[in-house]
Amino acid sequence: MPPFNHLHPAIVHFPIALLMTAPLLFLIGALWPAQRRGIHAMALLLLLLGLAGALLALATGDAAENLAHRTPALRAALDQHEEAAEWTVAIFSILAGTWVLHLGASRFLHRDLSPRLARLLFILWLLVSAMGVGAVLRTGHLGGHMVHDLHTHGGEP
Hints:
By secondary structure, the protein is mainly α. The protein has 5 helices and no strands. The model has no long low-confidence stretch (mean pLDDT about 90).
């Protein structure tokens, strides 16, 4: 097994795929009422797995970072990439937390929100998820910039 600091490039693609797919599935579930419950359950699972993968990517990225401080340009790019990754995790943590809170509240209170309020909150949730997808894209772009333009690879000695 490669050292922990070499795992970052292999790990990052899983949370990218999961975090970009989950909001799309939430939208599909909203548009397909007959299958909503099942689709939203799967979307929540993907969201939580993507979030766990993103946290692991942060940890492996921190381990790889210790070996990548060679030039000022690389250091600046690394700082931007790390900040974007932290924003990504924060946004998707809020999304996952609010969805779980919504599920818990509706089960605990034994009633649903009014359809109008539920629709408004869901649209707001989708807008924040679009911000999250944008954060994933920015983080990936900055990581690609480091690998392809600045010629570094996670865990290079």
